[in-house]
Amino acid sequence: MKSKAEITRLLKSWQQGDEMARNELTERVYAELHRMAMRKMAQEQQNHTLQATALVNEAFLRLFNADVDYKDRAHFFCLAGRMLRRILVDHARSAGRSKRGMGAEHITLHESQVLGQNTNPELLDLDQALISLSQKDSRKAEVVELQFFAGLNAEEIADVLSVSTKTVERDGKFAKAWLHKTLAENRMAV
């Protein structure tokens, strides 16, 4: 618990202009961001052109250069998950992949994260489905984002969102079913 409170304290100090706090914060959160990126990249195809270190470096730069008033550690890591998602989606788009087919990269999702074990939705399709889910229920979309893109487990997500682990598990089950249905409908519409 001390580490969580310490990161919040460092975020506040840094935002008030304390460069020493920024340096210490960098040391503490970089390792955690790298762990998140490693988890995420482990789910990617072997020939993915973006590496975990490049992913975390880009996320780190964006997070530290953003004009955001980070409320606390939870807020910071919630935005980190969102940033990892944006970078991966931007990477997929810039690689010239069409929304369906034509060499589009497939992302394998583990059963415990979003969809079934045999499902390989395209990242851009998943992104669009998450946007749609967030319009219906933003917390459920955040749960998926934190699981899939930030690599957090149910307890970590509960801490970030200030809800119970059971709520995270319920939201995850609902989101999994909703995304599975939405992605299947989208594939059938093609």
Automatic annotation (TrEMBL):
Listed Gene3D superfamilies: 1.10.1740.10, Winged helix-like DNA-binding domain superfamily/Winged helix DNA-binding domain
PANTHER family the UniProt entry points to: RNA POLYMERASE ECF-TYPE SIGMA FACTO, SIMILAR TO RNA POLYMERASE SIGMA-E FACTOR
Gene Ontology BP terms: DNA-templated transcription initiation
InterPro entries given in the database record: HTH_Sigma70_ECF-like, RNA_pol_sigma-70-like, RNA_pol_sigma-70_dom, RNA_pol_sigma70_ECF-like, RNA_pol_sigma_r2, RNA_pol_sigma_r3/r4-like, WH-like_DNA-bd_sf
One Pfam family named in its UniProt record: Sigma70_ECF
MF terms (GO), sorted A to Z: sigma factor activity
RNA polymerase sigma-70 ECF-like HTH domain sequence ranges: 5-183
Name used for this protein in its record: RNA polymerase sigma-70 ECF-like HTH domain-containing protein
Family: Belongs to the sigma-70 factor family. ECF subfamily.
Keywords: Sigma factor, Transcription, Transcription regulation
